Amino acid sequence: ILCPCPTYKQLVSSTLGKEVCYQRIGCFTDDPPWSGVPGRLLTGLPDSPEHMNISFSLYTRETGNNSQVISAINSSTIQKSHFSSRRNTSFIIHGFGSTGRKGWVVEMCLLLLEVENINCIAVDWAQGANGTYISAVNNIRVIGAEVAYFIKTLQKIFRYSPHEIHLIGHSLGAHTAGEAGRRIQGIRRITGLDPAGPYFEGTPPEVRLDPSDADFVDVIHSNHHMCISGLGIYNTTGHLDFYPNGGTVMPGYKTVTSTMVINFVPTDATIIGGCHHSRSHEFYFESILYPTGYLGYPCETYKSFESVNCFPCSQEECPMMGHYADRFPAKLERVNQKYFLNTAADPPFATWRQKVFVKLSGVKKMKGDINLVFHDTEGKTKEYEIASGVLSQDQVYTKYLDVEINPKNTKKIEFLWNKTIFTLLWARLGAETVNIIHGEDGHAKTITNQDKASLLPRCFTRNIV
Ligand SMILES: *[C@@H]1O[C@H](CO)[C@@H](O)[C@H](O)[C@H]1NC(C)=O
Ligand SMILES: *[C@@H]1O[C@H](CO)[C@@H](O)[C@H](O)[C@H]1NC(C)=O
Ligand SMILES: *[C@@H]1O[C@H](CO)[C@@H](O)[C@H](O)[C@H]1NC(C)=O
Ligand SMILES: *[C@@H]1O[C@H](CO)[C@@H](O)[C@H](O)[C@H]1NC(C)=O
Ligand SMILES: *[C@@H]1O[C@H](CO)[C@@H](O)[C@H](O)[C@H]1NC(C)=O
Ligand SMILES: *[C@@H]1O[C@H](CO)[C@@H](O)[C@H](O)[C@H]1NC(C)=O
Ligand SMILES: *[C@@H]1O[C@H](CO)[C@@H](O)[C@H](O)[C@H]1NC(C)=O
């Protein structure tokens, strides 16, 4: 209603201290902390809701793929829809340069409906997200306010409790969810999928997603902005913060070259740095299907996770990254709890971390390498190197493996060794023992060579010629 005020263009070209007000959702200033604080030296105010044509599309088990557009402005659209106040509700919020009308947002709703009978609302703000990155950063304040207004409307018409609401946001959508949570007390959960870094890293909590925005806030960092072309926030912003593969460059992508960086436009579309950035919603998607394949290990840094520490987990010590993070008993014990894990390079990305010890027998010393091959019940195999170079008898070779096969579906594990031509004279190499510790509960499995018949025939050799 109140927009006989200056136009957006006039506002951005003027100095700080401006304000814009919109019917229903109130006023927005560019006073600190919204502008002019460290990490956030931007200018401008959000566009109007009408300009952005924000929409809420409802997916339920009744609608399937034929969503219903519902609106808090005309709440009879909600009452006439398949929205049910007896179910939980998830809102999925996209990021910069994206859309809520197709693609991952819709796929996520459809998959969630396969496992839970919920109301899933795909929030679209594509027209507020398709200008410059800075305009989108400003616009999420209005989108967050609109999501909050929608929830207030649900409270009013159904006495619907925020405790039945889960907001899932990617990139700028994660901070949008934070803004909605700041305005509504008692949201059950917010999941931030690689919350955007630029203009949010190091800013006051009101401006960005933080643990006070919901009863439980879980975050997946898949591409922080300290690394080249990174778009995500690096610091913790939730109760549980997961850093898959260290949270920077995801496996399966080539390193970005400097020429690519010059042409780089931040977006959550799958281009350049965007590909790591979008991994976070792919991880979330796959975590719905492979809950145990995304176990996070508590650790101070990725480096110590990679080397020696933080393994294994006694029962219930490690949360599952993604959809089932809320099953972790200690989830609310502290804020800023860091968890690390490695994923595979390709979908479904899930891995099961195991620590392997191999003690060799048979020859004193030889050149070559030792590998383990995991076979699953469907005949798929995955091979991992344990050691290579000069191998000696009686030494124990140790390696952490992020195995792409669930231990539950592992039919057999094969021990392979690769010897060089120079060592052909030595007839035999075998494993005295192979020890495997499972990361998910610390249970150990030992294959010994006491019964030579059971171990050695399964070991075979390949020569490098
Ligand atoms: C705005 O959103 C509505 C659905 O809420 C859609 O039908 C319409 O085409 C959109 N308008 C524009 C200009 O994209
Ligand atoms: C949903 O519908 C869109 C087009 O209307 C289609 O492209 C998409 O494949 C459908 N998705 C599913 C899971 O049926
Ligand atoms: C509100 O939505 C209903 C459909 O649910 C429609 O019939 C009605 O015209 C709408 N009212 C306004 C004021 O847009
Ligand atoms: C809503 O979600 C919570 C947490 O996952 C769950 O405990 C509860 O049973 C759900 N409620 C309904 C009605 O499905
Ligand atoms: C954003 O999308 C709207 C509607 O599709 C279009 O009219 C507008 O030109 C787009 N803006 C930019 C900067 O691409
Ligand atoms: C990261 O977060 C912690 C705790 O919220 C804070 O003390 C620290 O200053 C932050 N670091 C950066 C670089 O923002
Ligand atoms: C054996 O060594 C060759 C050359 O280093 C390598 O290509 C091959 O994958 C190795 N095989 C096994 C089973 O390690």
Automatic annotation (TrEMBL):
GO terms for biological process: lipid catabolic process. InterPro entries: AB_hydrolase_fold (IPR029058), Lipase (IPR013818), Lipase_LIPH (IPR016272), Lipase_N (IPR033906), Lipase_panc (IPR002331), PLAT/LH2_dom_sf (IPR036392), TAG_lipase (IPR000734). Residues 18-349 form the Lipase domain. GO terms for cellular component: extracellular region. The active site is at 171 (nucleophile), 194 (charge relay system), 277 (charge relay system). It catalyses: a triacylglycerol + H2O = a diacylglycerol + a fatty acid + H(+). It is found in: Secreted. It comes from the Eukaryota. GO terms for molecular function: lipoprotein lipase activity; metal ion binding. It is an enzyme of class 3 (hydrolase). Ca(2+) binds at residues 208, 210, 213. Keywords: Calcium, Disulfide bond, Lipid degradation, Lipid metabolism, Metal-binding, Secreted. Its EC number is 3.1.1.3. Belongs to the AB hydrolase superfamily. Lipase family. This is Triacylglycerol lipase.
